[in-house]
Amino acid sequence: MNMWLDEVFHVQKPVIAMLHLSALPGDPGFDTKAGLSAVIKRAREELDDLQEGGVDGILVSNEFSLPYLTKTEPITAITMARILGELLSSIHIPYGVNVLWDGRASIDLAVATGAQYVREIFTGVYASDFGLWDTNIGEVARHRARVGGSNVKLLFNIVPESAKYLGDRDLRSITETTVFATLPDAICVSGLTAGAPTDTQSLALVKSAAGDVPVFVNTGVGADNVAEQLSIADGAIVGTYLKAGGVFENKVDRDRVEKLASQVREFRKSLA
């Protein structure tokens, strides 16, 4: 159970930190005056703070490409590949990528940059803030095989942010059929938005229904609740808490990273 987690992270209950990239070329919020060099500079600084702060992995995403597309323009993944190319020599922990909200582009970026995992919405049809949001996991899985990405682990977010599942189905049945029919490498459980707490009852329900598939708590994790969340989940993905003041838009604060990592180390001692 969770063998691939052990092979990739070499720790129990890994904590993956988000490396949120500033708005990119093509995004409405891109700073054309500061240019791409400013995006790379901030990413490098935050990478250093995350790694030195003690997290187990990172997930690089275009978090500030607001408003998001469900089929991204080529410039987004191309630019992210350029940024990762600049950072790769400095990355010494496992890393993944997430091109919001585009599963195929995420896989392409992972293959091009050697990323070991991606997180995306791979299943379901939703009414969302971005319009009607459709997916096709069969097509995406075959695309992964065609481009040589079969070793890239797919983390399925089954509670997407800013969206509602159109089918009238409960979370347990969604989890069970996702595991059986779509072959996820892990399942992520989220709150309503980035930084919003993930309901522990929902997390426990998904964990009980997921069988041998690892379950990650995907939002709302901080130093004060990480032990509680990891007592249920197999790992955590953390973004907003690690920012200065716990504010989504701010830069990573190394003190907060170290505080979270310290709590995780203490929790792991209880597992020994």
UniProtKB/TrEMBL annotation:
**Entries under InterPro entries matching the protein:** BtpA, RibuloseP-bd_barrel
State the organism's lineage: Bacteria, Bacillati, Actinomycetota, Acidimicrobiia, Acidimicrobiales
The protein in question is named: Putative sgc region protein SgcQ
- State the similarity comment: Belongs to the BtpA family.
Q: Which organism is it from?
A: Ferrimicrobium acidiphilum DSM 19497
Pfam families documented for this protein: BtpA
